[in-house]
Amino acid sequence: EAARLAATQRQLKSVTALDSLSSAMQAANGPAMRTVNGHTFTLRDGRWVDGRLTDSTRVVRVQLYSKSYFTLLARLPELRAMAALGDRVVMAGRAVAIEIVPRAPELSDSAMAGLARSW
Known about the structure:
4 helices; alpha/beta; six-stranded mixed beta sheet; 6 strands; single chain
């Protein structure tokens, strides 16, 4: 289990490093945009923000590479490609948005189940 987790972390870090380089190169050409799984993301202040996000959407923060992060990706595999955009990603779902951040508290099992239901 630990070896699989470490391998997944290395893969995601490689994707993140490439994305950071790509983002820096695109900065000179205007706002960077990406479409993943039907969601359009814009790079704003170092964060990939889902165009579906509204001011009234509840946002739950999840720490990058934490136990909560990997549990969330296992429960909602459709988030994997979106989460791979970078270190800071805001993904909007049906009734909740998930923000991947460098630091956040771990989520309880019940909070994780509620998040999956609201997605």
